[in-house]
Amino acid sequence: MKTDLLLIPMSARWADMRAAALAAEESGFDGLWTWDHLRDPDGDDGTGVPEAWTTLTALAASTRRLMLGPLVLNVANRHPGVLASMAATFQAVSGGRLLLGLGAGGSRRTPYAVEQDAIGQKVEGDEARARRVVEAITLMRRLWAGEAGFLRPTPPPPIIVGGFGPRMAAIAGRHGDGFNTQAMHPQLADLVRRARDEHAASGRDAARFLVTVFAGLDERWLDADSRARQALDRLGVERLILLIGPPFDLDAIRRAGRLLPAAR
């Protein structure tokens, strides 16, 4: 199982994110992620939130080895045709290190609906937002397959669909290359099974389907013999993504790196 780090962008500063990324790479982490949000719902210090794609592209130019990904891009924030070209460009910049996380975005019930209102973006119902994920994946794959004149990614990045329920797990399996959810989700095993079953039903190799989960940075996730990590191993989780918030304690990142399981 790979172990990655997610840099929470709320009230973060670019220089600190870059320093944390370099510390993660030097310490042996396998990948780096950040969230796709435009506004800090709890922020009042005027710092704001660095935009995910710009930050990741800059980190791709600053690092050599780490896989990089958004967890996850709200498909409402970027036209999927433009995103297809962005992803292809990112693959060129990074040397093929993109893990493309996609999701339906927050519902009206979440605090993130405010940021969508602020940019004039309508927040639709759950079914409509889920449908947009499928439409986005379909268009991107068509453009990557050789639509005349469009940049093609080398290699095409795996599309990892994020979600917390059976609808998004099914979409991830049938249309995506992977699924992401919470490591401590009470229905984790059922969601993973649903995603893999749908992947196999689509005619693709379920063994190649990527399961990734996220949790807070805690030493129990770094102990190969811990019950928490072994449970993920039994489910076949490929990447465990650990969250850390600003101002990003570099010593804590380095300590965590020293605890990473040797065989990944």
Considering the chains and any ligands shown, give keywords for the structure.
globular, TIM Barrel, 9 helices, alpha/beta, single chain, 9 strands
How far apart the termini lie comes to 5 Å
Number of strands: 9
The profile of the biggest β sheet is: 9 strands, parallel
The quaternary structure here is single chain
CATH topology: TIM Barrel
How would you state the average pLDDT, rounded?
95
Q: Mind explaining what this structure looks like?
A:
The protein is of the alpha/beta class. It has one domain (2-8, 62-210, 223-259): Luciferase-like domain (TIM Barrel, Alpha-Beta Barrel), CATH 3.20.20.30. 41% of the residues lie in helices and 16% in strands. It contains nine helices and nine strands. It has helices at residues 14-27, 52-62, 80-94, 113-118, 126-144, 166-175, 188-201, 227-235, 250-259, and strands at residues 2-7, 31-34, 67-70, 73-74, 100-103, 159-162, 178-182, 210-216, 239-244. It has a nine-stranded parallel beta sheet with strand order 3-2-1-9-8-7-6-5-4, with helices on one face. Helix 3 links the parallel strand 4 and strand 5. The chain is globular, with a radius of gyration of 18 Å. The chain starts with a strand and ends in a 5-residue tail after the last helix. The model has no long low-confidence stretch (mean pLDDT 95).
Question: Nutshell version of this structure?
Answer:
With 264 residues, this protein is an alpha/beta fold. It has helices at residues 14-27, 52-62, 80-94, 113-118, 126-144, 166-175, 188-201, 227-235, 250-259; strands at 2-7, 31-34, 67-70, 73-74, 100-103, 159-162, 178-182, 210-216, 239-244. It has nine helices and nine strands.
